[in-house]
Design a protein that fits this description.
With 138 residues, this protein is mostly helical. The chain has one domain. The chain contains 6 helices and no strands. Helix 4 runs antiparallel to helix 5. The chain is elongated and about 50 Å long. The relative contact order is 0.14.
Length: 138
């Protein structure tokens, strides 16, 4: 196996792991109901947007689901890598303010991985290239 294939496979593994983390965090919470949405929206309370916490939380969770799918497939990859990085930096700050150092550290790690993926890119193994190639063949 060539070096470029190893690197591309490693980037794919990172993307799969990040997508599992995003979807594993957000999917159960979306189906958890309004109380869970309000708790998720409370994470963004430091910004004081004026929106109800449950609306803010549901929006955040849906955004994280779309980001997980984007990271996995490669569609709009860099946009959602930036969004994921910002979300988890906010989580890291909020957890640190609450005194939850371990969660703060893990949130920062996910934010840092997302930030690194902005510069690394998707690698060679992405779904949208397959669609693009099939459309040009028509």
């Amino acid at each position: 196996m060539s070096l470029s294939r190893k690197i591309n496979f490693g980037v794919l593994l990172i993307r799969i792991g990040l997508a599992i983390a995003l979807l594993g965090y957000s999917l159960p919470k979306v189906f958890g109901g309004e109380k869970v949405w309000a708790n998720a929206g409370g994470m963004l309370s430091m910004f004081g947007s004026g929106l109800p916490f449950k609306t803010l939380g549901l929006s955040l969770l849906i955004l994280m689901i779309v980001a997980g799918v984007s990271v996995l497939t490669g569609f709009f990859f860099k946009v959602f890598a930036i969004i994921t990085s910002v979300i988890f930096l906010i989580f890291s700050v909020k957890y640190n303010m609450l005194g939850l150092k371990v969660l703060s550290t893990f949130s920062f790690a996910i934010a840092f991985i997302s930030f690194a993926l902005i510069y690394i890119g998707t690698g060679a193994y992405v779904l949208y290239i397959r669609f693009r190639q099939n459309n040009h063949a028509l």
